[in-house]
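Bug report (template v2)

What were you trying to do?
Predict the complex of my protein with zinc ion.

What happened?
Run completed; filing so the output is reviewed.

Input:
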Amino acid sequence: MDCIFCKIVAGELPSHKVYENERVLAFLDIHPVHPGHTLVIPKVHARNLLEIAAEDWAAVAEAARMLAIAVEKATDADGMNIMMNNRAHAGQVVDHAHVHVIPRFKGDGLRQWSPRSYKENEAAEIEAKIREAL
Ligand code: 5GP
Ligand code: ZN
């Protein structure tokens, strides 16, 4: 499989590794939003959150929590974004599941999305659909 993050796991491509355990690898994003921007991935290939094994996701989520604390401390950040793009139309470029751990700074001006308001009944309808889908 031609996956750059699998190649990083296998040591076939270089990376700045900051943490690893049996299931998880964390390394610096090559094009950081800010220095310290870290990617947390499962060692076993999974395309995204919708397809990852529950045990691997639990390990990735816990590593992301630990790294959020460590990256905040190391960069003296004012806040942290933990985010994940799933599938191309949600902005996913690398098809190996990864969580972004991004330090943020007062006044850095980055905006992620534009909130809107619900129309009449719209919230109740989507609430029912989500409950049904679970
Ligand atoms: P996505 O848009 O898929 O959520 O984010 C993919 C991220 O992977 C991007 O932020 C990009 O900078 C990072 N990236 C892409 N290729 C490489 C690479 O070869 N090495 C590292 N360390 N990061 C990469
Ligand atoms: Zn992969």
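What did the reviewer find?
The beta strands are 17-20, 24-28, 38-42, 79-83, 99-104. The chain has a mean pLDDT of 97.
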